[in-house]
Write a structure and sequence with these properties.
Chain B: InterPro entries: CcmE, CcmE-like_sf, NA-bd_OB-fold. The structure holds two protein chains of two kinds. Chain A is mainly alpha-helical. Chain A contains eight helices and no strands. The longest helix of chain A is centred in the first third of the chain and has 33 residues. Chain A is globular, with a radius of gyration of 20 Å. Chain A starts with 10 loop residues before the first helix and ends with a helix. Chain B has two domains: about 35 residues; about 110 residues, Beta Barrel (OB fold (Dihydrolipoamide Acetyltransferase, E2P)). In chain B, strands 1-3-4-6-5 form a five-stranded mixed β-barrel. Chain B is elongated and about 80 Å long. Chains A and B meet through helix 2 and helix 5 of A and helix 1, strand 6 and helix 4 of B.
């Protein structure tokens, strides 16, 4: 059943797959980001209470969603790296980590910029903000743990274990606004029963989420290509590739 | 799946469940302390299974909805007072300073301050809590009957 996946365990096939996928991600990112930002920032109507300040939602929410999405993919790669001991999965963990750290930082910074005018404070130690900050530290922890080892095999294993342990934080982030009293508002998009966001704002938000997903995917693929090349730099296929280019 | 992989997979699952259970227990034990604020009913009736009430002079945060019509501003200073409600009891907040943009009657807020009487708090910080609803002004008018204009406050002298 999984036979068709087996060739991609080889570094050169995985490298080729990255090359094939990359243009699709690039096109999705560019098209959706242009549409999403112009639609969201210029054409979507202003909110009835927050006026134009709410527009930060078009960057804040996609980056927050992707910070958790990227972490889940990193953890899945980490499980594969530990159980099946595929080196490509290890490289994927380390390819995703800095990208995830960046979107998490974007979510935190845009959130602070919105919080100052709306709440009246840059930062509050409520459960949602604190758990998202912990997510950033987890990303940084995975990264620094990987780079702390001289032996890359041990490094990959240690980073993968930390990535898996950190998965516990994802449900805490998501449900923090329901389990505890927080200053951060509850979930908007996943509140299906009542319409919490008007469709004139919902659709540009969706476009932006797709754009961010494409962007995270694209940068991850580029990083993964680099990691594969670096790890395999003494192999003949890399030499060939370099000679050709 | 070959036995070695199975063993490793079990190891990973055990790590996740073990740590999940540990963190779950920690969060359960800290349940009351992770909440950012007291609600007015918790402040008046006590919080948790032991109905613990905060004592006078304690620094705390309180969150609730500003009772419409309760905002009283002093005409000559930034002094303002208002009442908070959640499900029943009322708590009065006194505050001197600039209120955030989103502060209005009927809006949720979180105030940090010192309890000076069982139901009066002298706040040094007032934060507005926004809800999860986003809509354009016209829709809000149609759905909620909210006119899009700056709210009016009752001035003490009836100005």
């Amino acid at each position: 059943m999984w036979k068709w996946l087996h060739p991609y365990a080889k570094a050169d096939r995985a490298y080729q797959l990255c090359n094939t996928l990359l243009p699709y991600f690039a096109v999705i990112t560019v098209v959706f980001m242009i549409i999403g930002w112009i639609w969201g920032l210029a054409y979507a109507p202003a909110d009835y209470q927050q006026k134009d300040s709410y527009r930060i939602i078009f960057i804040h929410v996609p980056s927050a969603i992707l910070s958790m999405g990227a972490y889940s993919s990193m953890a899945i790669a980490a499980v594969i790296a530990l159980v099946w001991q595929l080196r490509n999965a290890e490289l994927a963990v380390i390819a995703i980590a800095p990208v995830g750290a960046c979107v998490t930082a974007i979510a935190l910074i845009t959130g602070a910029a919105w919080g100052k005018p709306m709440w009246g404070a840059w930062w509050v130690w409520d459960a949602r903000l604190t758990s998202e900050l912990i997510l950033l530290f987890l990303y940084l922890g995975v990264l620094s743990l990987y780079h702390a080892f001289e032996d890359k095999k041990a490094a990959g294993r240690a980073a993968s274990i930390l990535a898996i342990v950190g998965v516990i934080n994802l449900p805490i982030i998501h449900f923090s606004v329901e389990w505890w009293n927080t200053l951060h508002q509850g979930a908007t998009i996943t509140k299906f029963d009542t319409k919490a966001i008007d469709s004139s704002m919902f659709w540009p938000l969706m476009v932006n989420i797709v754009a961010f997903a494409g962007f995270v995917g694209m940068v991850t693929l580029m990083r993964l290509k680099n990691e594969i090349l670096q790890r395999e730099k003494h192999r003949p296929w890399v030499r060939q590739l370099l000679n050709r280019g | 799946m070959n036995p070695r992989r199975k063993k490793r997979l079990l190891g990973v699952v055990a790590i996740v469940f073990g740590i999940g259970a540990a963190i779950g227990l920690v969060l359960y034990a800290l349940q009351e302390n992770i909440n950012l604020f007291y609600t007015p009913s918790e402040l008046i009736e006590g919080k948790g299974p032991n109905k613990e009430k905060p004592h006078i002079g304690q620094k705390l945060r309180i969150g609730g909805m500003v009772v419409p019509g309760s905002v009283i501003r002093d005409e000559t200073s930034l002094q303002v007072s208002f009442t908070l409600i959640d499900t029943g009891p009322l708590v009065t907040i006194k505050y001197q300073g600039i209120l955030p943009d989103l502060f209005r009657e009927g809006q949720g807020i979180v105030a940090q301050g010192v309890l000076i009487e069982p139901n009066v708090i002298e706040a040094f910080e007032v934060l507005a809590k926004h809800d999860e609803e986003y809509m354009p002004a016209e829709v809000a008018e149609a759905v909620k009957g909210i006119k899009h204009e700056k709210p009016k406050y009752n001035l003490e002298s009836g100005n």
